[in-house]
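ping. complex inputs:
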Amino acid sequence: MTTIVILLVFALFLGGIMSGGYTSRYVKRMEETSIWGWITTVDHKRIGILYLISGGFFFAVGGLEALLIRIQLMFPNAKFLVGDAYNQMLSMHGTTMIFLVAMPLLFALMNAAVPLQIGARDVAFPFLNALGFWMYFAGALLLNLSWIFGGAPDAGWTSYASLALPEYSPGPGVNYYVLGLQISGIGTLLSGINFLVTIINMRAPGMSYLRLPMFTWSVFVTSALILFAFPPLTAGLFMMMFDRLFGSNFFSVINGGNVVVWEHIFWIFGHPEVYIIVLPAFGVFSDVLSNFSKKRLFGYHSMVFALVLIGFLGFMVWLHHMFTVGLGDVANTVFAITTMAISVPTGIKVFNWLFTMWGGRLRFTTAMLYASGFIVTFVMGGVTGIMLAVPPADFQFHDSYFVVAHFHYVILGGTIFGILAGVYYWWPKMFGYLLNEKLGKWNFWTFFLGMHLTFFPQHFLGLFGMPRRVFTWQPGYNLEMGNFLSTIGAFLMTIGVIFFIINVLVTITKGKAAGNDPWDGRSLEWTIPSPPPEYNFAQLPLVRGLDPWWLEKMEGNDQMTPAEPLGPIHMPNDSHLPFVMSLGLFVSGFGFVFQSSQVGAIGLIVVIATLFIRSFQEDHGHHIEPQPSEKGVEI
Amino acid sequence: MKIEETTGTVAGIPAEPERATLEGKNKVLGFWLFICAETTLFATLFGAYLSLKGANMGGPTQAELFKMPLVASSTLILLVSSLTSVLAITAMRHNQASRMTGWFLVTILLGAAFLTLEIYEFIEYVHEGHTFTGSAFGSSFYLLLGTHGCHVLFGFFWILSLIIQGRREGITVHTAPKFYVASLYWHFVDLVWVFIFTVVYLAGMTTGLT
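pong. complex structure:
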């Protein structure tokens, strides 16, 4: 085992050196391949596609894990996945879906849409953008390699101490969790900073804050949440790592440690995290609903206010995950009140969405179907959320399937519906052709009904007393029907996902060309070709109001008024350093997983060396000269 | 360089060279946001320390460990290094490259002196039985101070590489943001130390005294 790891690490390290430019012929050969272009790209549109592909891949992995869990739970006393195998499956399903699916798929949409929506040529830090992606991917890969080498994490996605300490989780499983999340978490933090600076500094002339499309606003608030929520996770994971690998005592009660410290740190990160993954979805729905209702978003200012308030309150509710810890009546009451308070801005948003649709000229495309399905589903999830926010009731619901039903309603109904709506909506912009609407409708209805069939019965399973995280259940407690229906629903959802995959495969060859503006859109991304040229805008547009493109169309213009004369466009250079740096982190993480400080140190040396190489690099980018021609602008 | 020609200049460079280009503006803003993130990182470590500091498990207590002269001199050294980094930035704004690199050199030498004292201090503590693995107090203490020490160490090498770049390339609108954000970083690390000095050392020395 150790030999394999050392050999693997050595091979990776060697590859890192080779691609680092130490043998010029090898590098030349590599540079000619198209894979190299994708590895070194700093273009936000291509990074968006990379996020989409890897997030999609892990969605399939996490989905299969869910399916296996449901197969085990279909009948009482099943022997399909028992004990530790089930624990690993369950832990990896949660961790994968949150960190390796929801986050990257949202980052895919952010990368694809935000710079275009604000009229920018790229993000503020293209290099950092690539680094963020490759760090996420390195972490994700590390986490999933646990299936092959040594066993997956088995302490749940929350990885509570003392269950996650070596005493109760021997083997490398939780090490993978700690190091994989550490690496991808830092990547996420970098991306968050990047989007904040992009939205603050890179807006086109006239694009004031209160003219930003709602999706961009939601990314802005989300990035702020990432900025303040991910560092506590980093700190907490460090503590867990030291406890597991180097014998420290943060959570080891026998030496004065305190397990509740982990719970606090985890949820100080973990609760903002659920808003991090749902707010961008809110943004997608706002844009989609307004677009397909052919109306300005109802109550734009209150929508912005609600977003900011949700982001703010999101940091003061973490204790509602810990009502049963026993922190006292005062603490529980205060956090119950703040939790309920969040439903006010969320309610504002729901009503504004409904009023946006009210009296609009509705077009039920697949994206719009997902947006409408979301409102129903999310309200149901919100209502169970309010039920869970009441501490005395929570004592009954806690750790039962009621909670499982609640958070799947909000995460699937919010985030995943949002991602799918966003994918259908922006797919033509990203790839230049439309997804098939007929297959899209099959995709929506099977997925939507499957989702409700899976999770609606789980409310009742929870109320009947079925505990979560347990690998089987006993007959004779009224749990048979619910569990059976739930598993059927999971299969129906799988069929939905298969429809989506078929849709992608079919339209790759036979997709209808999208043109600039397939949906009769309102914001700036629909003013430029699909897929957009490398520099996005030949001339930065002048923004004259909210929904700038719609405004121009209503005034009879067929293009935006340019805000600058045609001139050379400054573009960043591609770089292989983000990839090398992430490779170093991957090697280092792999080393530490197996408690090999030497391998860990080698990886870190690669990282630090790359940092300094980058600092000394004179990388001023290059210029593109656009040439005006009869057809518009050519390069 | 178009910018130098079009904007008001001081000694041949723009008045605020670190913010003269969009890249520079982005860098400075991005770094401020990074500092926000670092603040919550340290806040978490402080929180963990405060909740675990009583658990010394029979080892030496804070009041027994901490010695004012050593800690006071560490603090003094680090605060002076903040001042010298300010002087470096002032020199940068006046386009005096050698003066700037000189002050940065003083800054990191002071940082190195601080690190030496800290390592000496930790060795002393280990001799007295206060170790990373001995108790939850030890773990949280060394994680908080170790993270801060690693920041000083990283700052040392970072600013050292910037001194080399400053010597090679001088002060331009491309290098100025680097110097500026490095000095921001150094101030931030010093500020964290002020909190460590207060929350860990001063509060620790007075516990048990009523």
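The first strand of chain B starts at residue 9 and ends at 10.
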